[in-house]
Amino acid sequence: MRAATELWWRLRRAGAADNRVPGILAVVSFAVATAALLVCVAGLHAFEARNPLPPGGLKGHLSDEAALGNLYVTLAWIATTCMVIPILTLGGVAARLAIARRDQRLAALRLAGATSGQVTLMTLAEAAAQAVVGALTGVVLYLAVLPLVARLSFQGRPFELRELVLPLWQTLAVVAAVVVVAVVSGASSLARVAISPLGVAARTSPKRLSVLRLLVALAAGAAWVLVITPMKEPQRMTIVLVLGAMILAVNAVGPWVVMVAGRVAARLAPTAATLLAARRIADDLGTGALVTLVIITIVGATSTGVVQAARVLDQREQYRALALAGTSERSLHRARALEVALPLSMTIVLSAGFVLVLMLPFTSALDSGLVVRFVVTSAVAGAVVLASVLASRSLVRTASRVA
Amino acid sequence: MSYYDPARTPSGAPERPASPTVAPPVSPTVGLTGAQAPSRPARAESPDPARDLVARDLVMTYGRSGASAGPPALGGVDLTIRAGESLAVMGPSGSGKTTLLHVLAGILRPTGGQVLWRGRDIARMSDRERTVLRREDFGFVFQQGMLLPELPAIENVALPLMLGGVRRSEATARAATLFHPLGLSGLEKRRPGELSGGQAQRVAIARALVARPGVVFADEPTGALDQSTSAEVMHHLTHLATHTGASLVVVTHDENVARWCHGVVRVRDGRIAGADAGAHVAAGPVQTATAVAR
Fold first, then answer.
1. Is the model's pTM score more than 0.80?
2. Any CB–CB contact under 8 A between A377 and chain B?
């Protein structure tokens, strides 16, 4: 234990200059995740402060105004719940980044006689340290964007900064939660690989996703509509729970749909670039799952950019091999863009259906412009995601350099 | 407290070179005419089960067993590496020589057979036990030195000791004693990226020897080096192993490298196809595997 922590600290201090890119990417991920979560919780906090529960609680009679205020709080809860999973996913991505590109180093440590426990401890310490730095940066980021959030107008008046500033303990709780997510998801990533002196290998082949998931998602969607719609005054916790289940279900189905699309595309693949992209999607559901989840948020763009950069760093040997085999840089760029664009278009369809189902119980809040706005937002978000992929083009160029 | 202590050289080494027990040496002085060819190292010791590394009927199959499994990477290998001896393992690509090294070193667990080290079967040990073994009893020199780029040379050498719980100051002090004999004086603070290929391999040799291992395993230790650097590295590897009393197993496809060892075994299709004393490499195997190995 002492040997591992001491060595980790030595490696960390000594390696700061050598491992800068993945380190910065991970910290940025944690910072964006923390800031996004804090803004969500701050919004929820503001709505709750603005619409205090009447003395009789939800059971009592509510004035129209109070009922509307209550609906806002409920919607804020929905929004926050929706945000949690993408943020957790991003936290997981960042944790994987802490491990990524260290294959060689972890194998070298094992060869020199480090036990699995020591290697795990060192890796998780790294993920936790990056999470702490990232989360604290995220707090600063959150405070910086508060004036912008305060310009949003709800219930006829903009937020006041005072409403949006979270109590210190809540802020610290969010920071702590992000660090815990980093460590837990780092541990689960490590559980899926075997670190031997010869390298890091996947312990199991990628799980095959079944039609069962689709049925579960459909059932959850039906439950949402059937359970929430007839409720006159829906219980907030019921909503959060059912919604949580539903998001998990979509999370489960999304990758499956994307995988099927990938297989079909692989079969029909007209060009090498499409084939490359489709095969990768079918093999590795990570990107697909990610894109599915985080599409309509800035979190999505950040994580896609980060993941793409990490993949390029991770697979630089593969890129070099492809370049050596005569794959042009253009094909590599096209493959990467397709790799994201394919799941992206599937996701937009999926998300549209999801959001429409989500809104069904709140028909009063549904207006004709919403769908249009949603489509436009999705398109913009899609463009941002693709742009974040393009941002790592220079990394591909470096990685595929043959000499 | 130097690791390079001539007084520690096992005494009474006769002129006649020893060989792996699989092969009786044949006219050891023949063929050593190359510029870098060393005078064949001399060593002969009687078998000692408590100090020898003994492999019995090693079988290694990759992937799932059953009809779909390919031919075994190792198809029943018997081999004894006597204490203090050096052995070159040669063979064409895919012959199973690297697999043999990994199994002997406890990195891979064989599908069948035994690897006996100091009275214990490595093949039956837990991952943790094998890790401790790698740290305390074995040393490694691979083609790419497997050095951590973040750490200066001295700490790379001290790494196995530190992982074993030795304090950093003591670990680095012990590591420092190896720098002079390896011609690395003054390079203690350099990172691996600031070392030449030959220097990096010598740092790897220092790391392999720092814990005073019983066996050093080297997989193509000169694979990335030119001929003269290669000879220099092999000189240090064999001499230092000899002076610390460690056995040496070198996987190589380079006859010049094999010449530095007491003996040579040749592996083909997962079996030992022959063994000789290194001098007769061009003449092919002197005896068949079963005849020699059993």
1. no
2. no
